[in-house]
Specification:
Layout lengths: L11 H13 L19
Length: 43
Protein backbone atom coordinates (compact mmCIF):
# COMPACT_ATOMS: atom_id res chain seq x y z
CA UNK A 1 0.00 0.00 0.00
CA UNK A 2 1.42 3.38 -0.91
CA UNK A 3 0.13 5.05 2.27
CA UNK A 4 1.56 5.23 5.76
CA UNK A 5 0.29 2.40 7.89
CA UNK A 6 1.18 0.33 10.92
CA UNK A 7 1.03 -3.33 11.72
CA UNK A 8 0.26 -5.54 14.67
CA UNK A 9 1.24 -9.15 15.20
CA UNK A 10 -1.79 -11.21 16.25
CA UNK A 11 -2.62 -14.87 16.26
CA UNK A 12 -5.21 -15.79 13.64
CA UNK A 13 -7.75 -16.28 16.44
CA UNK A 14 -7.07 -12.77 17.83
CA UNK A 15 -7.21 -11.26 14.34
CA UNK A 16 -10.57 -12.89 13.57
CA UNK A 17 -12.02 -11.79 16.93
CA UNK A 18 -10.92 -8.18 16.31
CA UNK A 19 -12.31 -8.19 12.75
CA UNK A 20 -15.63 -9.65 13.95
CA UNK A 21 -15.89 -7.08 16.76
CA UNK A 22 -15.25 -4.15 14.41
CA UNK A 23 -17.76 -5.46 11.85
CA UNK A 24 -20.38 -5.98 14.59
CA UNK A 25 -19.82 -2.38 15.73
CA UNK A 26 -20.75 -1.17 12.25
CA UNK A 27 -17.31 0.18 11.38
CA UNK A 28 -17.04 1.30 7.75
CA UNK A 29 -13.93 -0.09 6.09
CA UNK A 30 -12.15 1.26 3.03
CA UNK A 31 -10.73 -2.26 2.64
CA UNK A 32 -12.62 -5.05 4.44
CA UNK A 33 -10.54 -7.22 6.79
CA UNK A 34 -9.17 -10.15 4.81
CA UNK A 35 -6.15 -12.43 4.63
CA UNK A 36 -3.64 -11.35 1.98
CA UNK A 37 -1.43 -13.87 0.23
CA UNK A 38 -3.33 -16.84 1.69
CA UNK A 39 -1.13 -19.93 1.69
CA UNK A 40 1.92 -17.99 0.51
CA UNK A 41 4.99 -16.55 2.21
CA UNK A 42 3.92 -13.38 4.03
CA UNK A 43 0.33 -14.53 4.63
Amino acid sequence: MPVRHFGAVLSMEQWQAAADKLKAAGIDFIIEPHVRFKGEVGE
